[in-house]
Amino acid sequence: IGGELWKAFLADVAEHGIREPLMVDRATGHVIKGNQRLRAALELGLSEVPVIYEDYCSPEDAIDDLIRDNVMRRDLTFFAKYRLVAVLRDRIESRQGAGGGNFSGSPKQRTSGQNAQKFEPPRDQIAKMLGLHQKDVAAASILSTFPDDVQKQFFLWAEEANPSKKEAQEKIRELGRVKK
User: Fewest beta carbons within 10 Å, which of 39, 116, 128, 138?
Assistant: First the structure.
């Protein structure tokens, strides 16, 4: 947050305080949710802020929560979310192995750090994290396989044309046919 929006946010915190607690990883002490609120509190000289401590199963779970919070609370465009798909897919697959959703043991054999979400296919996890339909995640995944210049061309087209989801998916299919 910057500029006038930051000034307005500071004024609100000064008048009303911090209304939503910060989420802090108990193991590391890192703020997972509420970094802007903490920044405002420090700038205003507040000596105390409300905090909820969370016991994350792993550092990856804390990072996923941070990503989910920042993505879902920001006014990201549909196409900005498309750009995040490849990054999130890489994160998830690096933890699960390519394809994800593959666990050879029964649910009773999972450790506490192996919650059910980790065994959903990456496409399903990403759809939930970004608030996208699975078809959108599939289209964005295909787009991420194209060379950088083709991806840049697509996003420039999207900014200028402001297409519907259906039009964007058709454009990606068209680019896929050209790629083949």
Answer: 116
pTM of the model: 0.55
Nearest in space to 88 (alpha carbons), one of 114, 57, 121: 121
b/e code 72-105 from CB counts within 10 Å (16+ = b): eeeebebbebbebbbebbebbeeebeeebeeeee
Q: How are strands ordered across the β-sheet holding 31-33?
A: 31-33, 22-25, 51-54
Question: Regarding beta strands 51-54 and 31-33, do their DSSP bridges make them parallel or antiparallel, or are they unpaired?
Answer: unpaired
**Are the beta carbons of 97 and 119 closer than 8 angstroms?**
no
